[in-house]
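Have a think about this chain, tokens included, and walk me through the fold.
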Amino acid sequence: MPHSGMSWAGRMREDIASARLRDPAARGGLEIALLYPGLHAIWAHRLNHALWARGWRFPARMGSQVARWLTGVEIHPGATIGRRFFIDHGMGVVIGETAEIGDDVMLYHGVTLGGRTRDAGKRHPTLEDGVVVGAGAKILGPVVIGARSAVGANAVVTKDAPADSVLTGVPARARPRVEGESTARILSVPDYSI
């Protein structure tokens, strides 16, 4: 459903602009709109989430499964997602039912925002505004990843992290972000401490 009074078309334009900003391979708006499966998954999620919120659970779940088959991205219709969310490449991304994603968040392929329990209630992660998650990372349980944090490729996160953290390793350990530190370096060359 539109956010802050913004129309569906306005949100779609904002999503395309966000993809252009974050993907150096993006050549134009039409290419992004037609060929980016992560974007298609987000657009499908908005429709499915609106159905879920209105109590139309089966059609919402059916829609999420169709989107999964078409895009390779699984987003539960109960997940809450903010503005300008971008999934780069997308294949293998899984976002659980009680996940909460803030504004300006970016995920790479193979990321899981999953649960660790079958208990009812909040069981999936919360990613605050501006979080970036590297390829293959797993963030599990009802943890909170603070704003502007970066999670390195293949990290396994099971504990909360404050804002402006860098999380790397298996299990992931958080450290403060160094001023001027390249997000690209964090995501591609994690400092594993197994």
